[in-house]
Amino acid sequence: MPDRTRLSACIITLNEADRIGECIESLAFCDEILVVDSGSSDGTREIAASAGASVIERAFDGYRSQKDFAVTQARHDWVLCLDADERVTPRLRNSIESARDRGFADAAGYKFARATEYFGKFLRHGNAYPDRVLRLFDRRRGGWHAGREIHEHVVIDGPVRALAGDLEHRAYRSLDDQLARYRRYAALMAQDMQQRGRRAHLHNLILNPCWRFLRGYLLRGGFLDGWRGLLFALLEADYVREKFARLWLLSHGER
Fold first, then answer.
1. DSSP-derived 3-state class of residue 140
2. End-to-end CA, the chain
3. Suppose 188 and one of 27, 150, 152, 183 were both cysteines; which one would form an S-S bond, judging by CB atoms 3.0 to 4.6 Å apart?
4. C-beta separation of 101 from 34 below 8 A
5. What pLDDT, on the 0 to 100 scale, is given for residue 1?
6. CB of 47 within 8 A of CB of 20?
7. Distance from C-alpha of 65 to C-alpha of 150, rounded to nearest angstrom
8. Is the pLDDT of residue 45 over 80?
9. Does position 230 have pLDDT exceeding 90, yes or no?
10. Is the distance from CB of 63 to CB of 152 less than 8 angstroms?
11. Residue 206's CB: how many other CB atoms inside 10 A?
12. Mean per-residue pLDDT for 44-48?
Protein backbone atom coordinates (compact mmCIF):
# COMPACT_ATOMS: atom_id res chain seq x y z
CA MET A 1 0.00 0.00 0.00
CA PRO A 2 1.51 3.39 -0.97
CA ASP A 3 2.43 5.91 1.70
CA ARG A 4 -0.19 8.49 2.58
CA THR A 5 0.25 11.80 0.75
CA ARG A 6 2.14 14.24 2.93
CA LEU A 7 0.54 17.60 3.68
CA SER A 8 2.09 20.89 4.80
CA ALA A 9 0.10 23.67 6.44
CA CYS A 10 1.30 27.22 5.74
CA ILE A 11 0.36 30.25 7.87
CA ILE A 12 1.52 33.88 7.64
CA THR A 13 1.47 35.95 10.82
CA LEU A 14 2.01 39.37 12.36
CA ASN A 15 1.17 39.84 16.04
CA GLU A 16 -1.28 36.96 16.30
CA ALA A 17 -0.37 35.69 19.78
CA ASP A 18 -4.03 35.51 20.82
CA ARG A 19 -5.06 33.41 17.81
CA ILE A 20 -2.14 31.40 16.44
CA GLY A 21 -2.40 28.63 19.05
CA GLU A 22 -5.95 27.61 18.13
CA CYS A 23 -5.14 27.85 14.42
CA ILE A 24 -2.19 25.45 14.81
CA GLU A 25 -4.23 23.12 17.03
CA SER A 26 -6.83 22.75 14.27
CA LEU A 27 -4.04 21.65 11.89
CA ALA A 28 -2.77 18.76 14.01
CA PHE A 29 -3.56 16.29 11.20
CA CYS A 30 -0.98 17.90 8.89
CA ASP A 31 2.52 16.46 8.54
CA GLU A 32 4.15 19.88 8.79
CA ILE A 33 3.02 23.27 10.07
CA LEU A 34 5.04 26.20 8.77
CA VAL A 35 4.63 29.75 10.06
CA VAL A 36 6.13 32.71 8.18
CA ASP A 37 6.18 35.68 10.54
CA SER A 38 6.82 39.27 9.48
CA GLY A 39 8.20 40.76 12.69
CA SER A 40 5.76 40.05 15.50
CA SER A 41 6.47 41.71 18.83
CA ASP A 42 3.84 39.93 20.94
CA GLY A 43 5.27 36.42 21.24
CA THR A 44 3.59 34.95 18.15
CA ARG A 45 6.75 33.19 16.99
CA GLU A 46 7.42 31.67 20.40
CA ILE A 47 3.85 30.41 20.77
CA ALA A 48 3.91 28.91 17.29
CA ALA A 49 7.22 27.16 17.92
CA SER A 50 6.05 25.78 21.26
CA ALA A 51 2.97 24.40 19.50
CA GLY A 52 5.19 22.42 17.13
CA ALA A 53 5.34 24.70 14.11
CA SER A 54 8.46 25.54 12.16
CA VAL A 55 8.92 29.32 12.13
CA ILE A 56 10.60 31.50 9.52
CA GLU A 57 11.01 35.26 9.82
CA ARG A 58 10.60 37.31 6.67
CA ALA A 59 9.91 40.98 6.02
CA PHE A 60 6.39 41.54 4.75
CA ASP A 61 6.15 42.58 1.09
CA GLY A 62 2.49 41.85 0.37
CA TYR A 63 -0.10 39.24 1.33
CA ARG A 64 0.20 37.29 -1.91
CA SER A 65 3.99 37.38 -1.95
CA GLN A 66 4.23 36.31 1.69
CA LYS A 67 1.91 33.35 1.11
CA ASP A 68 3.74 32.39 -2.06
CA PHE A 69 7.04 32.39 -0.15
CA ALA A 70 5.54 30.19 2.58
CA VAL A 71 4.42 27.63 0.01
CA THR A 72 7.89 27.49 -1.55
CA GLN A 73 9.42 26.78 1.87
CA ALA A 74 7.09 23.87 2.71
CA ARG A 75 8.54 20.36 2.75
CA HIS A 76 5.64 18.76 0.90
CA ASP A 77 3.98 19.49 -2.43
CA TRP A 78 0.41 19.39 -1.14
CA VAL A 79 -0.20 22.48 0.97
CA LEU A 80 -3.06 23.85 3.05
CA CYS A 81 -2.88 27.63 3.47
CA LEU A 82 -4.55 29.38 6.41
CA ASP A 83 -4.48 32.78 8.03
CA ALA A 84 -3.93 32.92 11.77
CA ASP A 85 -7.56 33.92 12.33
CA GLU A 86 -8.86 30.76 10.63
CA ARG A 87 -9.61 27.27 12.00
CA VAL A 88 -10.25 23.93 10.31
CA THR A 89 -13.50 22.52 11.70
CA PRO A 90 -13.84 18.79 12.46
CA ARG A 91 -16.11 18.24 9.45
CA LEU A 92 -13.68 19.97 7.10
CA ARG A 93 -10.81 18.02 8.60
CA ASN A 94 -12.64 14.77 7.87
CA SER A 95 -13.21 15.87 4.27
CA ILE A 96 -9.54 16.77 3.83
CA GLU A 97 -8.35 13.51 5.34
CA SER A 98 -10.72 11.49 3.15
CA ALA A 99 -9.36 13.24 0.05
CA ARG A 100 -5.80 12.65 1.28
CA ASP A 101 -6.51 8.95 1.84
CA ARG A 102 -7.40 8.84 -1.87
CA GLY A 103 -4.11 10.53 -2.70
CA PHE A 104 -5.85 13.76 -3.73
CA ALA A 105 -6.36 11.88 -6.97
CA ASP A 106 -9.41 13.71 -8.28
CA ALA A 107 -8.18 17.31 -8.25
CA ALA A 108 -5.25 19.70 -8.37
CA GLY A 109 -6.86 21.82 -5.67
CA TYR A 110 -9.82 21.95 -3.31
CA LYS A 111 -12.07 24.76 -2.15
CA PHE A 112 -14.44 24.94 0.79
CA ALA A 113 -16.80 27.34 2.49
CA ARG A 114 -15.54 29.90 4.96
CA ALA A 115 -17.80 31.01 7.82
CA THR A 116 -17.08 34.36 9.47
CA GLU A 117 -17.72 34.79 13.19
CA TYR A 118 -19.27 38.18 13.84
CA PHE A 119 -19.90 39.45 17.35
CA GLY A 120 -20.50 36.04 18.87
CA LYS A 121 -22.28 34.25 16.02
CA PHE A 122 -21.35 32.92 12.59
CA LEU A 123 -22.84 34.69 9.59
CA ARG A 124 -24.64 32.22 7.32
CA HIS A 125 -25.94 34.44 4.53
CA GLY A 126 -25.13 37.51 2.46
CA ASN A 127 -21.70 38.24 1.03
CA ALA A 128 -20.11 36.58 4.06
CA TYR A 129 -21.21 33.00 3.39
CA PRO A 130 -20.40 30.55 1.92
CA ASP A 131 -17.40 32.61 0.67
CA ARG A 132 -15.71 29.59 -0.92
CA VAL A 133 -11.92 29.75 -0.85
CA LEU A 134 -9.30 27.61 -2.59
CA ARG A 135 -6.69 26.84 0.05
CA LEU A 136 -5.70 23.20 -0.44
CA PHE A 137 -3.66 22.48 -3.56
CA ASP A 138 -0.71 20.83 -5.26
CA ARG A 139 1.96 23.52 -5.51
CA ARG A 140 3.36 21.82 -8.61
CA ARG A 141 0.14 22.80 -10.39
CA GLY A 142 -0.49 26.27 -9.04
CA GLY A 143 -0.28 28.66 -6.15
CA TRP A 144 -0.21 32.31 -5.15
CA HIS A 145 1.58 33.22 -8.37
CA ALA A 146 -0.53 35.95 -9.95
CA GLY A 147 -2.95 38.73 -9.22
CA ARG A 148 -2.97 41.53 -6.71
CA GLU A 149 -1.28 41.56 -3.31
CA ILE A 150 -4.53 42.33 -1.48
CA HIS A 151 -7.58 40.01 -1.64
CA GLU A 152 -5.18 37.51 -3.15
CA HIS A 153 -6.23 34.17 -4.61
CA VAL A 154 -4.75 30.87 -5.74
CA VAL A 155 -4.51 30.02 -9.45
CA ILE A 156 -4.58 26.30 -10.32
CA ASP A 157 -3.83 24.44 -13.55
CA GLY A 158 -6.23 21.51 -13.26
CA PRO A 159 -9.57 20.50 -11.79
CA VAL A 160 -10.78 22.05 -8.54
CA ARG A 161 -13.23 20.17 -6.32
CA ALA A 162 -15.32 21.31 -3.38
CA LEU A 163 -15.03 19.74 0.07
CA ALA A 164 -17.72 19.58 2.75
CA GLY A 165 -17.23 21.46 5.99
CA ASP A 166 -16.41 25.03 6.91
CA LEU A 167 -13.24 26.94 7.52
CA GLU A 168 -13.96 29.11 10.55
CA HIS A 169 -12.92 32.73 10.13
CA ARG A 170 -12.58 34.71 13.35
CA ALA A 171 -11.64 37.86 11.55
CA TYR A 172 -12.42 40.79 13.83
CA ARG A 173 -11.38 41.24 17.43
CA SER A 174 -13.70 44.25 17.78
CA LEU A 175 -15.55 46.87 15.76
CA ASP A 176 -12.47 49.09 15.89
CA ASP A 177 -10.41 46.21 14.50
CA GLN A 178 -12.87 45.72 11.63
CA LEU A 179 -12.92 49.42 10.77
CA ALA A 180 -9.13 49.67 10.88
CA ARG A 181 -8.81 46.60 8.65
CA TYR A 182 -11.30 47.95 6.13
CA ARG A 183 -9.46 51.25 6.00
CA ARG A 184 -6.14 49.52 5.40
CA TYR A 185 -7.63 47.27 2.73
CA ALA A 186 -9.35 50.21 1.01
CA ALA A 187 -6.05 52.06 0.71
CA LEU A 188 -4.24 49.01 -0.65
CA MET A 189 -7.01 48.22 -3.11
CA ALA A 190 -7.15 51.80 -4.39
CA GLN A 191 -3.40 51.76 -5.02
CA ASP A 192 -3.61 48.42 -6.80
CA MET A 193 -6.51 49.55 -8.97
CA GLN A 194 -4.67 52.71 -9.97
CA GLN A 195 -1.55 50.74 -10.88
CA ARG A 196 -3.70 48.56 -13.13
CA GLY A 197 -5.02 51.60 -14.94
CA ARG A 198 -8.43 51.74 -13.27
CA ARG A 199 -9.99 55.17 -12.79
CA ALA A 200 -12.88 56.08 -10.53
CA HIS A 201 -15.80 58.38 -11.30
CA LEU A 202 -18.02 60.14 -8.83
CA HIS A 203 -20.91 57.81 -9.58
CA ASN A 204 -18.75 54.92 -8.29
CA LEU A 205 -18.94 56.48 -4.82
CA ILE A 206 -22.73 56.13 -4.91
CA LEU A 207 -23.62 53.18 -7.11
CA ASN A 208 -20.93 50.66 -6.14
CA PRO A 209 -21.56 50.85 -2.38
CA CYS A 210 -25.32 50.64 -2.96
CA TRP A 211 -24.92 47.57 -5.14
CA ARG A 212 -22.67 45.87 -2.57
CA PHE A 213 -25.28 46.47 0.13
CA LEU A 214 -28.26 45.39 -1.99
CA ARG A 215 -26.52 42.29 -3.29
CA GLY A 216 -25.41 41.10 0.13
CA TYR A 217 -28.30 42.19 2.32
CA LEU A 218 -31.26 41.54 0.02
CA LEU A 219 -30.32 39.32 -2.93
CA ARG A 220 -28.09 36.99 -0.91
CA GLY A 221 -30.23 37.04 2.21
CA GLY A 222 -27.96 38.92 4.61
CA PHE A 223 -31.07 40.12 6.43
CA LEU A 224 -31.53 36.54 7.67
CA ASP A 225 -28.53 37.08 9.95
CA GLY A 226 -30.45 39.73 11.90
CA TRP A 227 -28.71 42.82 13.19
CA ARG A 228 -25.32 41.25 12.53
CA GLY A 229 -26.19 40.86 8.87
CA LEU A 230 -27.31 44.47 8.66
CA LEU A 231 -24.21 45.82 10.36
CA PHE A 232 -21.92 43.69 8.23
CA ALA A 233 -23.63 44.80 5.00
CA LEU A 234 -23.51 48.48 5.99
CA LEU A 235 -19.81 48.37 6.85
CA GLU A 236 -19.02 46.48 3.65
CA ALA A 237 -20.74 49.26 1.69
CA ASP A 238 -18.69 51.86 3.58
CA TYR A 239 -15.53 49.94 2.67
CA VAL A 240 -16.45 50.04 -1.02
CA ARG A 241 -17.22 53.77 -0.79
CA GLU A 242 -13.84 54.51 0.81
CA LYS A 243 -12.03 52.37 -1.76
CA PHE A 244 -13.49 54.33 -4.66
CA ALA A 245 -13.07 57.66 -2.88
CA ARG A 246 -9.37 56.92 -2.49
CA LEU A 247 -9.10 55.80 -6.10
CA TRP A 248 -10.89 58.94 -7.28
CA LEU A 249 -8.41 61.10 -5.35
CA LEU A 250 -5.44 59.15 -6.67
CA SER A 251 -6.80 59.54 -10.20
CA HIS A 252 -6.81 63.31 -9.69
CA GLY A 253 -3.29 63.48 -8.29
CA GLU A 254 -4.34 63.69 -4.66
CA ARG A 255 -3.17 61.50 -1.79
1. helix
2. 62
3. 150
4. no
5. 36
6. yes
7. 10
8. yes
9. yes
10. yes
11. 12
12. 97
